[in-house]
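worker-03 picked up job from queue 'complexes'. Input manifest follows; two sequence lines, order preserved.
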Amino acid sequence: MSAYITLMTPMTDEECLLAALADVGFDRTKVEVHVNPVRLMGYQVDRQIREANLVIRRQHVGSVYNDVGFLATPTGYQAFVSDDDPRFGAGWLELLNQQYQLHAEAKQQRMAEEERQHLEAARKKLVEAQRATICAKAKKLGYQVKETRAGDSIRLVLVKRTY
Amino acid sequence: MQLNLARTLQRSAANGPGERFVIWVQGCPLACPGCWNPDTWTAQPRMLRDTQDLTAEILATEGLTGVTFSGGEPFIQARALTAVAKEVRAAGLSVFIFTGFTRAELKSQAARALLAVTDVLVCGRYVASERVYDLPWRSSANQRVHFLTSRHGPADMTQAPEAEIRIGPDGQLTLTGLPGSKLLGSI
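worker-03 finished. Artifact:
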């Protein structure tokens, strides 16, 4: 069969992400917020230094596991969770994302027109960042990328093979 | 007649030759380990579509080369898909099917009726231990491509896109086609 895989809608808003984390049990007393990313503890085994702007330390997660972190990137927050922790896998991220979307929608409803325009500009910037990131990664993997646009949606067709 | 569907995509270049309207049916008894779309296994009603309505939507979509049936398992709903296939072929579109059954297993009257209105058949279970990345339209080496009419041929396999990524207005990513693990991992 051919694949049809929908990935999570990016989480870009700190306020909404903090609210979503509170919904899933991590209120502000358990989440560190850093303007500049700080190092996550527990990732030394694979010798990778991981950093994040929003951090839930191990004492709130469980001492045998790594810190949970969210790094702000141009394409939205990138989540770092322990691969071997069954509580914080894809299902947990999906639930968090659902809560995030609820808060994001509610925030948009509350906004004044000027703020909405600001949000719209941020949305367009995010989509462009997604496009640029995917194109760069695909080209690095050897794909030729054919891009078409329809309204606000972008389609990237990836061709690599020549038979 | 009704179809139980998982989803449709009005336009894709990574699900067979040319621009195609793709229909992922709901329900698959094969449940191959490592399947892309395990959410399509259950036969519980998900998105019920009248075949005539669906056909009308396909025919109203401009610039298509054809229609692709994927899933789920298309041959479980062979009778209803045959109705769609007949109509779209009469309008000049080709029919391409991804099935988990082997050609030899497609012997029932309903299966033969669907094969009679199919141009390209990609068949065979997905076998994770035989995963391949360099065969067009196939995910594992045991799968076979059959050109059942002269509408398409091996030449269509050259430069077949491996995958297609859509970025929605909210930044949501959707991936379709037969993406390799490196591509999936990098995204």
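worker-03 released lock.
Chain B touches chain A through 51 residues (CB under 8 Å).
The mean pLDDT of chain B is 94.
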